[in-house]
């Protein structure tokens, strides 16, 4: 943090020098316009572009080691989470990187603003004409055919040769906006005025808070520690409606106050309007099942707006915001994902390292695995299996979906598989090896057997009851299983905080070392790409992971 602070000050105070001629070296190029976009004419020379520089971090390997040290049972440092400053120090650029980038910016009369506590992301605005000169680029207007939205990008750019090894990548350049996030999409209305008392106690037909409490042993008593919080991510203008939450609690958690609600944090111009016809299906689901399951745990809905330029729909901006919080929520639940092939490794890896920072300070990060089986976040045509991101990041916990209650079986849409960007982490190496041995040559060539495998765990995700725009109905998806699982972790953290112990933090090393605390799911599969996909079986599998949670077992695992 001290080094980053010095860098900030120097950026603001260096005198502007005369630009000097530098040898340029191609940094990135893409061979064609991405599918769905049409290339137009050059960007107007005076159009202002908000540029971001991702600087090479000083010690990302050290950050990963520190994360595992505080997250692996048996480590002498287990549970001793880093401070924000300690985590940021690993991501801060070296003094050499600071000096050479600083000099280049000053030569070009540019003042940059640091975007992260570590100073590894810088932002500045320049006209398109100057951006073309700076990066030997050809910034062009591209139109997204299905939405009509426009984006200014270049198909290639260069950096001064002496900045290679100091600047990781520049955005926006060759990475195009996604305009689509995988999330829950369907709502099936039920009979009007349906209440908890009118539903079966089990989760066999509809899933409600009370059946989840029975199925997973979740306590109904309220949490007691105000310092322990759960964060819920909101994207693509999905708004969480408090009137719908109130009705949900009245009908399905009548034992707690129906005025129980959440606070709102905004990122990138996010908001949370309360007109009922603006309620978001995903946002309602996520807040109703975190407020409704994590009884009494303070809940913050993080609304990430459309004013983002991080190249990944505000996902990185959200984490940088949380890294600036003191403390951030001890659990973060996110029910959105991308298909991994849509993202370049540089961007995915940078975001993954940000998750490592947040995990190192003690936050458990949970992501839905997706709803397309082996074909990605949503079912689509494919010839090889499509992994989803951020589930493939080794530093998050990916959640698949189950259904039924005696016994639970895999939901057929539950995405799972193997990364093409990230290698198998050590904590799951034995489990993945056992699974691969068991399937032999099945689906050979359709997935990367040496990649990070997902999901890690699973929970109920079919016929989950919510209230949406004043109407009661059900939804399906790993978007359901994620807030349910996150709420269980938040309740364990409450017990830990009450005992004066640190939160669980990054979960995977603990979970894979203790698979018996989960209920193993051994039937069902996740078809896609004209195959049956993978099959659930004894032990870990890429459909339901290690299995579904048991609160009492997790408490015992936490030493409570």
Automatic annotation (TrEMBL):
Binds 1 Ca(2+) ion per subunit. It is an enzyme of class 3 (hydrolase). The active site is at residues 282, 286, 479. This is tripeptidyl-peptidase II. Residues 206-560 form the Peptidase S53 domain. One of its GO terms (biological process) is proteolysis. GO terms for cellular component: extracellular region. Its EC number is 3.4.14.10. PANTHER family: PROTEASE S8 TRIPEPTIDYL PEPTIDASE I CLN2, TRIPEPTIDYL-PEPTIDASE 1. SUPFAM superfamilies: Protease propeptides/inhibitors, Subtilisin-like. Residues 1-17 form the signal peptide. Gene3D superfamilies: Peptidase S8/S53 domain. Its cofactor is Ca(2+). Keywords: Calcium, Glycoprotein, Hydrolase, Metal-binding, Protease, Secreted, Serine protease, Signal, Virulence, Zymogen. The keyword Glycoprotein applies. It is found in: Secreted, Extracellular space. Secreted tripeptidyl-peptidase which degrades proteins at acidic pHs and is involved in virulence. It catalyses: Release of an N-terminal tripeptide from a polypeptide. GO terms for molecular function: metal ion binding; serine-type endopeptidase activity; tripeptidyl-peptidase activity. Ca(2+) binds at residues 520-521, 539, 541. The keyword Calcium applies.
